[in-house]
Write a structure and sequence with these properties.
Elements (H helix, E strand, L loop, with lengths): L23 H19 L4 H36 L7 E5 L5 H8 L5 E6 L11 H10 L6 E5 L12 E7 L8 H14 E12 H11 L3 E4 L13 E7 L3
Parallel strand pairs: 1-2, 1-4, 2-3, 4-5
Antiparallel strand pairs: 5-7, 6-7
Helix pairs in contact: 1-2, 2-3
Length: 244
């Protein structure tokens, strides 16, 4: 169902705040890294190994936090600019979370509309709830162009061909089964109009499998700005144009 702005207490923010992706991961990585460094400082045997491991994990934590707080936002700004939206499109963001991609897209749709769907898991993103997404949209000045719905990506509540563009950022891989992930990709293609575009950012192995499942699309690495700790967790962009 559509999130009614009057259903929840009104949040007022001075600027959008998008939280941290999978917040437990960097917290654990940083804690283990600090523990390794502390242990290495207190012992002689294996000191160098412990200090090296701890330093690497702390560095990975810093890279992760930079990506989730800054890097991914800049890259999505770049990729949405590259998409050259007309400004009147109907756009769907699957797994919108607190709205980082949804709101950047809405800024480019003065005559269009952006809809976000999510199941609002706090495990996948800190503070993830629909009223926060709407508050972020208001802080960005695009509240009139944004709606959010509680919906499952594997069973979207929209008719065939409802959207010109479908986006998704690091969301589809959270579906636990391969069958479910492919069903989400199929749903994205179903709700696209002929000639519409699917733009998905996900980890390389997942993005490659989505492209294989669809049977078309181009893949492109998004670089260090989208590394969740290092190149082993780098993000790839899948771009598909739905055939007429």
């Amino acid at each position: 169902m559509t999130q009614d702005r009057n259903d929840s207490p009104l949040l007022r923010l001075d600027r959008p705040r998008y939280g941290v992706d999978a917040p437990a991961f960097p917290a654990l990585l940083g804690a283990v890294g600090a523990a390794c460094c502390l242990a290495g400082a207190r012992r002689r045997a294996g000191r160098k190994t412990m200090l090296t491991a701890g330093t690497v994990m702390i560095a990975q934590t810093g890279i992760y936090l930079h990506t989730t707080l800054h890097g991914k936002l800049r890259i999505w700004q770049r990729e949405l600019d590259r998409a050259r939206l007309r400004g009147d499109e109907q756009l769907l963001d699957m797994g919108c979370g607190r709205g980082a991609v949804l709101i950047e897209a809405a800024k480019r749709l003065p005559k269009g509309h952006a809809v976000g769907v999510d199941l609002w898991s706090g495990t996948d993103q800190s503070g993830n709830r629909p009223e926060m997404t709407l508050a972020n949209a208001a802080a960005a000045g695009v509240a009139d162009r944004v709606d959010v719905r509680t919906a499952d990506m594997t069973a979207l509540p929209f008719a065939d061909g409802s959207f010109d563009v479908v986006t998704s950022a690091l969301a589809i891989h959270n579906i636990p089964s391969a069958e479910g992930r492919y069903r989400a990709v199929d749903e994205a293609m179903r709700v696209l109009r002929p000639g519409g575009r699917l733009i998905v950012a996900d980890f390389w192995p997942m993005a490659r499998k989505y492209a294989t499942h669809i049977g078309q699309g181009t893949l492109r690495g998004l670089g260090p700005g989208y590394w969740y700790g290092g190149p082993h967790l780098g993000v790839t962009l899948l771009h598909v144009v739905k055939e007429s």
